[in-house]
Design goal:
Helix content is 92%, strand content 0%. The chain is an all-alpha fold. The protein has one domain. Helix 1 packs antiparallel against helix 2. The longest helix has 24 residues. The chain starts with a helix and ends with a helix. The mean pLDDT is 78. Keywords: Membrane, Transmembrane, Transmembrane helix.
């Protein structure tokens, strides 16, 4: 189940970063969107593990 959620989040973050890249035509914005989504995912998992 955890692997399924991770795969779903990975695919959604790739799709969103590609959408940002397509709109802005700047690879830095696309990469920053991808990195930011993974940072937020890590923060969320850290909070979930503490509870």
């Amino acid at each position: 189940m955890k692997d399924r959620k991770l795969l779903l989040f990975l695919s959604l973050s790739i799709i969103s970063s590609l959408a940002v890249l397509n709109v802005t035509k700047d690879i830095l914005y696309g990469l920053s969107c991808f990195v930011l989504s993974w940072i937020l995912y890590g923060i969320g998992m850290n909070r979930k593990n503490k509870q």
